[in-house]
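A common beginner's mistake is to predict each chain separately and then try to dock the pieces by hand. The better habit, illustrated here, is to supply every component at once so that their relative placement is modeled jointly.
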Amino acid sequence: MHPIYVVLCRSMLALSLGGNMSTPPIFILVIYDISDDSRRNEMAVALKRLGLTRVQRSAFIGPSSSALVSDVKNVSRRIIDLETDNVQIYPLTQASYNMRIVIGRELFRDDAAAGGYLV
Amino acid sequence: MHPIYVVLCRSMLALSLGGNMSTPPIFILVIYDISDDSRRNEMAVALKRLGLTRVQRSAFIGPSSSALVSDVKNVSRRIIDLETDNVQIYPLTQASYNMRIVIGRELFRDDAAAGGYLV
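With all components supplied together, the output reads:
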């Protein structure tokens, strides 16, 4: 093995283990599991109004901010049936977003072009 | 040089060049949008067989590995209709997973206890 390659590996190992563990999220991914058609539609309308972008029928992506997370929590609590429905919010770093993989037909291909790749 | 170290270096090199993730992902989130009941069920069965854990009816979480990502891509391509259906795979860091927010009833509360919080 070439010494330069070894040095490169070691510096990457140091970066990986000791590097910035607190990369701030820049997106939130909101996924929901709502059985009732009316509530599910209401949820989609509410998330669109909050400025999120639809990436699947029950999945939206928006910018990461505590205000937006709070808004999504509030509309979720207002709309969903807490006994049967479920909403999950995942913070995503830029790297996570760039590494996402999309298979098949995405709802908005223009948006998909902003990150990730189609396979 | 020990072969395992070389493999580790190569995977880190791939990560570093491809995704620029300073913090490596430890989970993958798989979400799918499949209109046909039969294909949707088939997808759920396939993801369970691959060892992923269901967190919503159309969302699964599993450990991050290139082998698992490859398997998920393969079963997706085999099962879904590429013209109408959609699968998305998001790498998640431990921090992203810990910061996830769950509202309402999660499919498996035992699993939810492993990370995130219910609101």
